[in-house]
Each structure stands twice: as structure tokens, then as C-alpha cells.
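Regression test case RT-17, inverse folding.

Input:
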């Protein structure tokens, strides 16, 4: 958990959020709306790019469907939201909650997180996570200027999730194999698309409830490999 790269990534989110908070009060509502749309569009572009890395689209479909059912059953997004409510000592879907959920999904979903944590945990190579830190720093500035303090607290999610991945990297090396990683990226792309649709107000999709699909896709691919 005390990996240097993970600490740097966590700090990048916090420092980026500080700059975002300084910017927030100076932005007019019309500018905030444009920034929302810009972030949403870039998220969609990243999601599409990740989607095209898929090996088997039927695997991605099955994983998102099954993962979505699991997430809805356990109300993953609602639980993340309630955690944010406890931190803020509030109720309902406040801007703090929206920022916490959105930033958590955006910062921890994607192959760069997986590969970066594996490289840091197994090989001691921190370069990927440090690159991710610079990207998260910029994203944190923009998201915090829109959502506020909730984005800052998403640094806790970054620290815990990436710290666990680094700590257990040697037991999870299977995910770094192309036959798993590509479909994993496709599922991550689908989740980011859902997040992008929400940000651009195209469609309200609970992206947080799709997070279990990131685990389901590993077992679906594993099952297919056993059958072939």
C-alpha cells in the first residue's frame, strides 16, 4: 500500500483538486457547462478507443450485462454515494457525491491502472503510474472546478484500489496477458462510455453499477479459454 507511485498518483489528485477549487468560484455557469461537455466528450472518445481493443465483443457484452445486474443488485453506485454522503455528512445526490462517484470511476477504470500497478508491484517500474498521475492531475483540476470537494476525496479510492492492486500484483499477473487485458479494456471502455453519456447528459446511466463487470470479464475469458 505504501508504494511511491501510488502515493504520487494520490497526491496528484489532491493537488489537482486544490487548483480546481481555486478555479471553481471564478467560473460562470455557462463555462462550467462547456467544460462538462468537453470532459464528457473526451471520456466518450477514450471509451470508444478502449472498446476497439476488444478481442471478443460477445465477451464484453456478457460481462457488462452480468456485471450490471450484480452492480444493480448490490446497488454499488448507491453505496459509493452513501459513503460520500457520510464523508460530507449530507443526504441525497449532492454535487459532492456526483464528484466523488464520477472521479472514482474515471480514475480507477482502465488498462493504465492495471498495467501501471502490475509494473510497479512486480518489476518496480513506476513509469506508467507516474504518467497516469500527470493525466489524473489535469483531470482533477477540471473535475473539481465542476463538482467541487468530492473529487478531492476520490483520492482515497485511488490510494486504496491502486494500493491493493500493487500489493497483490504477483497473484493477478493473468490480467496482463493480451487475451485477458484486451477484453478487460473493452469492458472498461464501456463503463467510460456510460460515464461520458452521463456527463454530456445524453443518457443517465449508473456507471458505478457496471464496475463488477471488470471482475466478471476475467472469469468469462477464463471459461472460454478452458473450452477451446
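Golden output:
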Amino acid at each position: 500500500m505504501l508504494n511511491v507511485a501510488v502515493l504520487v498518483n494520490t497526491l496528484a489528485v489532491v493537488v489537482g483538486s486544490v487548483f480546481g477549487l481555486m478555479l471553481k468560484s471564478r467560473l460562470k455557469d455557462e463555462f462550467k457547462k462547456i467544460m462538462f461537455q468537453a470532459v464528457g466528450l473526451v471520456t466518450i472518445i477514450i471509451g470508444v478507443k478502449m472498446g476497439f481493443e476488444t478481442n471478443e465483443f460477445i465477451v464484453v457484452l456478457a460481462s457488462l450485462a452480468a456485471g450490471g445486474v450484480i452492480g444493480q443488485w448490490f446497488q454499488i453506485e448507491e453505496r459509493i454515494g452513501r459513503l460520500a454522503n457520510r464523508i460530507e455528512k449530507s443526504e441525497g445526490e449532492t454535487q459532492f457525491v456526483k464528484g466523488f462517484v464520477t472521479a472514482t470511476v474515471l480514475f480507477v477504470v482502465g488498462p493504465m491502472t492495471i498495467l501501471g500497478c502490475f509494473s510497479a508491484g512486480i518489476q518496480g517500474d513506476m513509469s506508467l503510474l507516474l504518467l497516469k498521475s500527470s493525466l489524473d492531475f489535469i483531470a482533477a483540476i477540471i473535475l473539481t472546478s465542476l463538482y467541487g470537494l468530492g473529487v478531492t476525496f476520490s483520492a482515497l479510492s485511488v490510494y486504496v484500489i491502486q494500493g491493493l492492486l500493487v500489493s497483490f500484483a504477483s497473484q493477478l499477473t493473468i490480467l496482463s496477458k493480451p487475451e485477458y487485458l484486451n477484453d478487460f479494456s473493452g469492458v472498461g471502455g464501456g463503463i467510460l462510455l456510460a460515464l461520458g453519456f452521463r456527463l454530456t447528459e445524453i443518457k443517465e446511466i449508473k456507471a458505478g453499477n457496471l464496475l463488477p463487470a471488470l471482475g466478471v470479464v476475467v472469469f468469462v475469458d477464463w471459461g472460454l479459454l478452458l473450452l477451446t
